[in-house]
Amino acid sequence: MSAPEAARGVDAAAAKRTAQRARKTRWSVALGRPLLELLGRTWRVEEVDYGPVAALRAARRPFILACWHGQLLPHLWANRFRDICALVSQHGDGEIIFRVIAGWGYRGIRGSSSRGGRDALHAMVSELGRGSAFAITPDGPRGPAGVPQPGALIAAVRAQAPIVPVWSEIPRAWHLRSWDRFQLPKPFARIRVHYGDPWVPPDTSAASMAELTRRLGPAPNGGAAR
How far apart are CA 106 and CA 93, in angstroms? Predict the structure, then answer.
């Protein structure tokens, strides 16, 4: 096989993979979003200690909502249509998540600690500077679960924006066999979404990282409520 023929073969295989990913994305969004919305409408969601967050929003102050990746879904659901930006990974199924949450009123920014991180961080700081709220999973997109990456701290320090920890009590949930033990609340589950005290980290030191971890609490571990 000549070099031009080999190159055409490689190009054809790449085009086929691209088309397959595009089909997967279209079908996943077309089927997944209605199913998630149907499930979400059965949940009974109670938001606990939301007052300080409401005060930040009323004052048009920027802030960062931070939760562990494993509890992302109920928090996205509770905060839909509140004009929040979200950092969405460029890895794997990020495009599917990006399109689903766009239907819930989120403005997505693509990037993560391992791909597109510098551009994503710059976009985060810019959005916070304009007074936006931002949602982030400090241990995403690949973990380890409950171990934060520095992006949230860096953005908070640069923008002088408080981090608001978020966690949930979900007594009835499925736990996926994934690195983050991703929680999918069962139909008609009662969910208590807790908001922690807004906190502006003084720096990005190891001590501040430890304090962020403490404030976020333990990552999902198979069903134990907080």
Answer: 17
Distance from C-alpha of 28 to C-alpha of 207, rounded to nearest angstrom: 41
The neighbour count for residue 173, using CB atoms within 10 Å, is 23
Q: Which among 96, 84, 78, 75 is positioned nearest to 41, based on CA atoms?
A: 78
The two tokens of residue 49 are: 């200690």
Residuewise pLDDT in 10s, the chain (226 residues): 555 555 555 566 666 665 666 576 665 666 778 999 999 999 999 999 999 999 999 999 999 999 999 999 999 999 999 999 998 877 656 777 888 899 999 998 876 655 557 888 888 999 999 999 999 999 977 889 999 999 999 999 999 999 999 999 999 999 998 889 999 999 999 999 999 999 999 999 999 999 999 999 998 864 433 4
CA distance 37 to 136: 21
User: Does pTM surpass 0.70?
Assistant: yes
C-alpha closest to that of 77 among 122, 46, 108, 119 = 46
